[in-house]
Specification:
CATH topology: Lipocalin
Number of strands: 11
Radius of gyration: 18 Å
Protein name: Polyisoprenoid-binding protein YceI
Pfam families: YceI (PF04264)
CATH superfamily: Lipid/polyisoprenoid-binding, YceI-like
Strand content: over 45%
Order of helices and strands: EEEEEEHEEEEEH
Shape: globular
Structural class: mainly beta
Number of helices: 2
InterPro entries: Lipid/polyisoprenoid-bd_YceI, TTHA0802/YceI-like_sf
Family: Belongs to the UPF0312 family.
Helix content: under 10%
Largest sheet: 8 strands, antiparallel, barrel
Distance between the termini: 29 Å
Oligomer: single chain
Length: 190
């Protein structure tokens, strides 16, 4: 498949200022409403020569949900949706990684939202590695995945007079990750 550079091996940590984990859902069946989480941690342990041995761990503070509407955000934090008092984190831990094309992977893992854990497969594109002007080595990853929120206990809804419901069951998760290499090897520092 891809020709990987062994210098890509090692731990990579998402730069929160240059990383977005977001979502969109239909509102009133006619428009999409989006948001993101402001407090996220992503750690990738990469093995360039054997990608299947790589791992990904994601931890999101559920209370950091931000849709740019304070009233909606409070409702999303409530027991009707995320119930952040009882379930403060959304987590994803990879269980397998398969390269399916050049720089494209299927990452299987355990996603936990509230008190429900399900196995999900997430397509991930590796967008490359670059050295920034501040001496850091960065790697980029992006992808999206549709989920049924009801599968994770997010049941709240209101029927509409015109048919349908106020909030769609399907939610599209998307992410753009800029990860910084931890502890680069001495050869990389030169």
């Amino acid at each position: 498949m891809s020709d990987y550079d062994p210098s890509w091996d090692g731990e990579w940590v998402a730069d929160p200022g240059h990383t977005t984990i977001g979502f969109t859902a239909r509102h009133a069946m006619v428009a999409k409403v989006g948001g993101a989480f402001d407090d996220i941690e992503v750690t990738i342990n990469a093995n360039a020569s054997a990608p299947e041995q790589s791992t990904v761990v994601v931890r999101i503070a559920a209370a950091s949900i931000n849709t740019r509407n304070a009233q909606r955000d409070e409702h999303l934090r409530s027991p009707d949706f995320l119930d952040v008092e009882q379930f403060p984190y959304i987590t994803f831990t990879s269980t397998s990684i398969e390269e399916v094309d050049d720089m494209a992977f299927m990452v299987t893992g355990e996603l936990t939202i509230r008190d429900v854990t399900k196995t999900v497969v997430v397509p991930v594109d590796f967008t490359g590695v670059a050295h920034d002007p501040f001496g850091q080595t960065r790697a980029g990853f992006e992808g999206k995945r549709r989920l049924n929120r009801r599968d994770f206990g997010l049941e709240w809804n209101v029927p509409l007079d015109t048919g349908g419901v106020l909030v769609s069951e399907k939610v599209e998760l998307s992410f753009e990750i800029s990860a910084i290499k931890s502890n680069p090897s001495p050869a990389e520092d030169q």
